[in-house]
Amino acid sequence: MRISEEEQQDLELLKAFLREHNYPEPYYTTKEVIEIYKITSFCYSISFCTRRADGVKGNMRFADAEACIGEGHYARLYSGFVAS
Asked: Could you give the residue ranges of the DSSP H alpha helices within 4-60?
């Protein structure tokens, strides 16, 4: 599935915001994160997940473009997996 040019711009703005606010890289889109992790629940800006490759449980932060930069309803990035 290809993303629109507008969504790509929103993602780039969101990446810049996350870097500026010291969110750890790498950043994953929702499509990318569900390939690597099984998301089990959310709480505020934290998602609880299991890494598919080895079954390690942990959490990741996520950020929405709308909340962070005031635009891009559908742009969301995940970062900073921490094993529990």
From this structure: 5-20, 30-36
